[in-house]
Write a structure and sequence with these properties.
With 468 residues, this protein is α+β, with helices and mostly antiparallel strands. The protein is built from ten helices and seven strands. It folds into three domains: 177 residues, Up-down Bundle (Four Helix Bundle (Hemerythrin (Met), subunit A)); 72 residues, Signal transduction histidine kinase, dimerisation/phosphotransfer (DHp) domain (Helix Hairpins), CATH 1.10.287.130; 151 residues, Heat Shock Protein 90. It has a five-stranded mixed sheet, with helices on one face.
Length: 468
């Protein structure tokens, strides 16, 4: 069942409870009003009956027959009042009680008529008058008292039922709201977990989805999307593999073609002009062949380093010491290139577990690129500092060279990608990238044409385990 339908059903249920409670309250209020109306009528009748009894006592005390006529008039007025309010009286006490009151009033009236018509006072009829008046008065008082009690009972019962109904509606609203909110939250948690997994590249489905509501549809849609993304990821990975193989093959062919062509040309010249060449020329040609061969060996070595990085020999080391040692290796190159250097090494850096030789290789590659970017001289800044989160050490290599165009930045770490033409192999930064990743670190680049380039190497601290 959909959540929308559950909410509608729960609302209908609560509204039905409220309507039933309201109908009950209206019904009881009508009963109370009916009883109250009867009590008002009964109070008036009781007042009339009391006046009749007073007149009756005056008759017995003074023997004045005029008081009997007054009683008769009051009986007539009471009868008219009863007939005028008979509908309200019937609703309150029922037709039986009304008939009983009429009978008692008629009996009292008949007794008064008998006494009026009697020429002399008769003790027996006077006793009948007292009895009839007393019976009428007591019946009216008893019925009034009983209806007051019933009215109080109705009010008390209505109060209890309204209170119980309120708590029932309140509890129902809480339970329904809790059930629906838990259903929504559990589905949202599953969706959140799924989306986080997808963002991390985990395309597993959400298992045991039995819900038929809106969230079940959403989860099924996410599962379908996850499955599609998994297939697409496989296709993209395969496509990238093929593209990488194509780029790698083209790069290797391009890098090896030049030295091979040079070797081929020098070999042909050596064969063709061997007889006319002096010993010095022959040695010169062979030296050039050897140089081109060494160039091929360097390309192959870089390619092997890129394709299968060496296992890092991690040891606890001071990053500043590694930087200082690296500067000693490249200082002559910096001096010859008319490049000024500035060091900004932060003190009290934590020790980092790293392979010093591999990190030196990375720094040499970065510094060499910086030197080539500052062909007319410039400023090279190398610094170290603690990472912003305190769990890494950052090394910064910043130059004031020509910079890198924005369209080239996304490909700067791709193998055989180079902005230096035939001067570079396009493997230096790729190898450096692999070394840093092998150390579980990060390497970033920022550059503006005409301003310079900044490489940032981030190495994690407190890593004592071996990395391969």
């Amino acid at each position: 069942m959909k959540i929308e339908h559950k909410i509608i059903i729960s609302n209908v249920f609560n509204v039905a409870l409220i309507l039933l409670t309201g109908l009950f309250a209206i019904q009881n209020m009508n009963n109370v009003l009916t009883k109250l109306r009867f009590v008002e009528i009964a109070d008036d009748l009781n007042a009339s009956f009391l006046e009749m009894r007073i007149s009756e006592k005056n008759y017995f005390l003074y023997g004045n027959t005029d008081t009997l006529l007054e009683i008769k008039d009051k009986i007539k007025s009471a009868g008219l009042a009863i007939e005028g309010e008979k509908n309200d009286i019937v609703r309150a006490v029922g037709a039986g009680s009304l008939s009983q009151m009429r009978e008692y009033l008629k009996e009292y009236a008949d007794t008064v008529d008998v006494i009026i018509q009697s020429p002399s006072r008769d003790s027996r009829t006077e006793t009948m008058l007292r009895t009839a008046g007393k019976t009428l008065r007591e019946f009216s008082q008893t019925m009034t008292k009983l209806e007051r009690e019933r009215m109080n009972d109705i009010i008390a019962r209505s109060k209890r039922i309204l209170l119980y109904s309120f708590w029932a509606i309140f509890a129902s609203a809480i339970l329904v709201s809790h059930f629906i909110s838990q259903k929504i939250l559990s589905s949202l948690r599953a969706i959140e977990k799924m989306t986080k997994s997808i963002s991390k590249g985990d395309f597993r489905k959400i298992d045991e989805v039995r819900s038929r509501d809106e969230f079940g549809s959403v989860i099924n849609a996410i599962n379908f999307m996850s499955e599609e993304l998994s297939h697409r990821e496989e296709e993209i990975i395969q496509s990238k593999k093929l593209a990488s193989i194509g780029i790698l093959t083209a790069g290797v062919a391009h890098e090896l073609t030049n030295p091979l062509n040079n070797i081929s040309m020098m070999a042909q010249n050596f064969i063709e002009y061997y007889g006319s060449l002096s010993e010095k020329d022959r040695i010169g040609l062979m030296s050039r062949v050897e140089g081109e061969t060494e160039r091929i060996q360097e390309i192959v070595k870089n390619l092997l380093d890129f394709s299968k990085p060496k296992e890092a020999n991690l040891q606890e080391a001071d990053v500043n010491t590694v930087i200082t040692n690296t500067m000693g290796l490249v200082q002559n190159m910096l001096d010859v290139s008319n490049i000024k250097t500035k060091l900004g090494l932060s003190g009290d850096l934590p020790a980092v577990h790293l392979d010093a030789h591999q990190i030196q290789q990375v720094l040499v590659n970065l510094i060499t690129n910086a030197v080539q970017a500052m062909s007319s001289g410039g400023m090279l800044f190398i610094g170290s500092r603690l990472g912003r989160k305190g769990d890494s050490v950052e090394i910064t290599v910043k130059d004031s060279g020509r910079g890198i165009s924005p369209e080239f930045l996304p490909h700067i770490f791709d193998p055989f990608f180079s902005t230096k033409g035939d001067v570079g192999t396009g493997l230096g930064l790729s190898v450096s990238y692999g070394i840093i990743k092998n150390h579980k670190g990060e390497i970033r680049v920022e550059s503006k044409p005409g301003v310079g380039t900044t490489f940032t190497v981030e190495l994690p601290v407190n890593r004592t385990q071996s990395i391969s």
